[in-house]
Every structure is written in C-alpha cells, then in structure tokens.
Design a protein that fits this description.
two-stranded antiparallel ribbon, alpha+beta, signal, about 35% strand, DUF1838 domain-containing protein, DUF1838, about 25% helix
C-alpha cells in the first residue's frame, strides 16, 4: 500500500509539472489586452490575489514662490500597502480591483525626525503638522476590455534594452472640499500634477514563472500648499520629489516609517478588505474632517 501511494503521488506530481510547464514558460505580450493587464497587475499587486504588496518612497519637499529661491521644507518617507482581488465581467473579461491605504511622513530636513509642529517661515506661526494618511486609496476595476469592447493598452509602455519604462502623468483639477460652492467663478479648485514613473527589468516582468515583479518608482507632485500650513491664500506651490520601489515585505520598510506606524497608524500594516466600499480620502478631505471634529468639540464645551 505504501509503495502504491508513493507511486500515485509521484505520478500526480509529474502530471502537475507537465501540465504546468507551458504556462510557466510563457512570455507576456504587451500587445495582447489580457497580457497588458497582467503587466499592470504585476506592477501594482502582490504575488497572488489577496496577498499584500508594499511600495516605499523617499524624497524631499520644496516650496516654489514667485520672486524667491526655492526652499527645502521637509524630507519625506512614505509607503502604500495594497492588495488586489480578482473580478469577472461577462463582457469585459477577468480583471482585478486594487485597494490600498498610504501614509507619508514629513521629516525635519536636518534631523530626519518626524515633525509634530512646523515653524512657518512666511507667517511666523507655529502650526501642527498633519501627516499624509489616506485611507482608503482604491483604484477603479481594471479589465482587458472596456464596456464598449475597446482593448486594454498601456500607451506609455516602452522597452529599452533589458529595461521597460512606464511613465504616467496625472493632471488633477477638481472640486476642493475646503473651498466654497462657487469655485467655477472665483477659483480655489484643487489643482495639482502627479507624475509616476515605473521602471522594471523586462525578463522579470514578462516571464510568468515569476509570480510578480518588483519595479522601481519615481514620484513627483506639484500642488498647492498643504491646508495645515495655514498659508491664507499666499501665492506659491509645493514640489514633492521621491524615488522608491515595490518591496518584498512590510519588514523592508525603513525604521522611521515602521516606528511611526506602530505609534500612530497601526491599521496601516495591512491593506483594506478587497470589497472595501468607502470613498477615497485625500489630505484635503482628511483635514476637513479633522477641523470639523475640532470645531464640534469646541462647540460642545460652550
């Protein structure tokens, strides 16, 4: 009986290997909608559906004010933890949904410690620093075909030797929750530009024997002042510039990030649930909720 079971086990293992061999040897073709979607999924997601993936970035934050030199305001350390889940549509095919939450901490550019307060050099006021902590930051479902049958394509993807590059520019211009109801007439809309540049080894990405890929990323954001800075409409912008990569585990994050998450953001050690129905948060929506709660608390005291 033992020998027979051993023979069955060996036969099953051999059969599994033979059946899996063609898929294991496949090379993704970016021109095929299903493969293009898989390339994007391998860029964004973990080693399997439901397995968390972590992106880390590190950089600097500058001011840009007309008529004066740019100033280094902060160092920055950030991370995004996400998971992807499989979704199906009878017309659009098999796709995925990505759910995530992210933090970025403003650090003193001299000591590299997380800042709790900041001395505003333009107003002379000391203000409380509100770190970037957005939960959730979820993406729309992605499929190999759109609702009208248009095939999925990564229009910016290009190959150069052993490398593949995938840049994205995201112009943002939308309703500012901190402004009034007449933004089309008097301004104050949220206006920013975010730039994401992914780079990865072609062999790692395209070979399906690898469960995922580990791209590097550069991130640039040009935006208005953060609301917690209390700039009172002062002319100027912020320029964020950072680089990083997708990590193989949460433990690879820098100590300063893990320590701050453990202290103040414990939920950021895991992504949201795959069926998370919440609306996305931004610094502006989070800040509004914080100010509204503080004002309500003050009102209760009176």
């Amino acid at each position: 009986m033992r020998n027979m079971l051993k023979h069955v086990a060996l036969t099953s293992s051999a059969l599994a290997f033979i059946m899996g061999a063609p898929a294991a040897a496949r090379t993704l073709d970016p021109e095929k909608p299903e493969d293009a979607l898989e390339i994007m999924k391998r860029t964004q997601c973990g080693t399997a559906d439901g397995v968390p993936a972590v992106y880390h970035w590190s950089g600097r934050v500058y001011s840009r004010v007309q008529g004066e030199p740019d100033r280094l305001l902060f160092n920055g350390e950030g991370m995004n933890i996400r998971q992807c889940v499989r979704i199906e549509d009878p017309k659009r095919g098999v796709g995925y949904r990505q759910v995530s939450r992210e933090v970025m901490f403003y650090l003193d550019p001299k000591t590299n410690e997380v800042l709790r307060t900041w001395d505003n050099p333009w107003t002379g006021e000391t203000v409380k620093v509100m770190q970037i902590a957005n939960d959730p930051v979820n993406s729309r479902p992605n499929y190999p075909y759109s609702a009208d049958g248009k095939p999925y394509k990564i229009s910016t993807l290009r190959r150069q030797g052993k490398w593949m590059f995938m840049p994205f520019e995201v112009p943002l211009f939308y309703h500012n929750v901190l402004a009034g109801d007449y933004q089309d007439y008097v301004g104050n809309k949220y206006h920013a530009m975010e730039i994401f540049d992914f780079a990865f080894l072609a062999d790692e990405m395209l070979d399906t024997r690898n469960p995922t890929a580990y791209p590097t990323i550069s991130w640039v954001r040009i935006s208005d002042w953060m609301p917690w800075m209390k700039m009172r409409g002062r002319q100027g912008q912020m320029v964020f510039n950072a680089m990083g990569a997708k990590l193989k585990s949460y433990d690879e994050l820098p100590k300063v990030i893990k320590d701050e998450i453990a202290l103040n953001y414990p939920e950021y050690t895991a992504p949201p649930p795959g069926d998370d129905p919440r609306k996305n948060e931004t610094t502006w929506t989070v800040f509004k909720k914080m100010i509204d709660a503080e004002r309500a608390a003050e009102k209760e005291k009176k």
